Please model this.
Amino acid sequence: MAYLFYKTSSLLSLEFYTYNYSSDSKEVITYFQTPLVDNMKYMLAYCSDLEYVDLSYFDTSIVEDMSFMFTECFNLTSVNLSSFTTPKLKTMEYMFYKCLNLSFINLENDTDNGIVINNILTN
Model:
């Protein structure tokens, strides 16, 4: 899933649990299956108009790299990562780099397993 929505600048919001498509650029995908995904590097990077992301239904149990995942999502204000489990995760470096308007991150699950989180919120 690395680079999946890379530089999709007109994307406003993403939710991965019901299906709906409308003209306001809101993409919604039904039960996105991610149990075999091991790389989410740059997945939503440079989606400059993105305001909200709900990835709470993602299975992240074998993901090793989430670095630069939301880099330069300038309008991103809220991210729901509440179901993330990260036993194999090695790096989240620069995950939210230059997310200047980010005010809320839901990380309910414990992500402390010795991963590299240098500069995770660097602007």
Remarks:
- DSSP finds no helices and six strands in the chain.
- The radius of gyration is 13 Å.
- The CA atoms of residues 10 and 82 lie 25 Å apart.
- The chain has one domain: 1-123.
